[in-house]
UniProtKB/TrEMBL annotation:
<comment type="pathway">
    <text>Purine metabolism; IMP biosynthesis via de novo pathway; N(2)-formyl-N(1)-(5-phospho-D-ribosyl)glycinamide from N(1)-(5-phospho-D-ribosyl)glycinamide (10-formyl THF route): step 1/1.</text>
</comment>
<keyword id="KW-0658">Purine biosynthesis</keyword>
<dbReference type="InterPro" id="IPR002376">
    <property type="entry name" value="Formyl_transf_N"/>
</dbReference>
<dbReference type="GO" id="GO:0006189">
    <property type="term" value="P:'de novo' IMP biosynthetic process"/>
</dbReference>
<comment type="function">
    <text>Catalyzes the transfer of a formyl group from 10-formyltetrahydrofolate to 5-phospho-ribosyl-glycinamide (GAR), producing 5-phospho-ribosyl-N-formylglycinamide (FGAR) and tetrahydrofolate.</text>
</comment>
<feature type="site" description="Raises pKa of active site His">
    <location>
        <position position="144"/>
    </location>
</feature>
<dbReference type="GO" id="GO:0005829">
    <property type="term" value="C:cytosol"/>
</dbReference>
<dbReference type="GO" id="GO:0004644">
    <property type="term" value="F:phosphoribosylglycinamide formyltransferase activity"/>
</dbReference>
<feature type="binding site">
    <location>
        <begin position="89"/>
        <end position="92"/>
    </location>
    <ligand>
        <name>(6R)-10-formyltetrahydrofolate</name>
    </ligand>
</feature>
<keyword id="KW-0808">Transferase</keyword>
<dbReference type="InterPro" id="IPR004607">
    <property type="entry name" value="GART"/>
</dbReference>
<dbReference type="Pfam" id="PF00551">
    <property type="entry name" value="Formyl_trans_N"/>
</dbReference>
<protein>
    <recommendedName>
        <fullName>Phosphoribosylglycinamide formyltransferase</fullName>
        <ecNumber>2.1.2.2</ecNumber>
    </recommendedName>
</protein>
<dbReference type="InterPro" id="IPR036477">
    <property type="entry name" value="Formyl_transf_N_sf"/>
</dbReference>
<comment type="similarity">
    <text>Belongs to the GART family.</text>
</comment>
<feature type="active site" description="Proton donor">
    <location>
        <position position="108"/>
    </location>
</feature>
<feature type="domain" description="Formyl transferase N-terminal">
    <location>
        <begin position="1"/>
        <end position="181"/>
    </location>
</feature>
Length: 189
């Protein structure tokens, strides 16, 4: 199965996924890394792996539709079969969703349906929850609303700072995302 990772920023999830594919823990081919920011750190990480790394930005297009059409062309060019969002900070538009039904996966740093949106970790922390976590789900047209595939739980202790909680969440992400992708690939190959 040919996988593309879409990421906007740091790329720590991209890196663990790329490494898991390289180590054959995920029986897939990583055919493309795409970022919607030319200066995203994920593109630096991409250089460590022998894969095409591409980027273009929304502002280079007349509107969101043309941007997404270009992205769809790119995914088609690389024969992508599964799209993996790893900190890709954009809503997926309807053409892309239609082209990849149940073939776009996202990771969200909270236990959905709780704390959707941009600040899942901070929102959970500020709400004072004793438990939060990570959700991997298929993407639909809503914000963090698609069918849930897997969740990982994290306890929040009274001593945890926000930064402690972020560290715990990322540790769970880095363990869970490659495991779940390995399973999805196995079930669909
Ligand atoms: C992760 O916390 C992920 O859950 C969220 O964006 C963050 C991306 O982190 N969607 P990184 O760029 O993979 O380090």
């Amino acid at each position: 199965m040919k996988i593309a990772v879409l990421a906007s920023g740091n790329g720590s999830n991209f890196e663990v996924i790329a490494q898991a594919i390289k180590d054959k823990k995920i029986a897939a081919e990583l055919v493309l890394l795409f970022s919607d920011h030319h200066d995203a750190y994920v593109l630096e990480r991409g250089k460590k792996f022998d894969i095409p790394c591409e980027s273009f930005e929304l502002k280079e297009f007349s509107d969101k539709q043309s941007y997404e059409d270009a992205l769809l062309d790119l995914l088609t060019e690389y024969n992508v079969e599964l799209v993996v969002l790893a900190g890709y900070m954009r809503i997926i538009g309807k053409n892309l969703l239609a082209a990849f039904p149940n073939r776009i996966v996202n990771i969200h740093p909270a236990l959905l349906p709780n704390f959707p949106g941009l600040h899942g970790i901070k929102d959970a922390y500020e709400a004072g929850v004793k438990e939060t976590g990570v959700t991997i789900h298929y993407v639909d047209s809503g914000v963090d609303t698609g069918p849930i595939i897997a969740q990982g739980r994290v306890e929040v202790s009274d001593e945890d700072s926000l930064s402690d909680l972020e560290t715990k969440i990322h540790q769970i992400e880095h363990q869970l995302y490659p495991e779940v992708l390995a399973k999805i690939v196995k079930e669909n190959s």
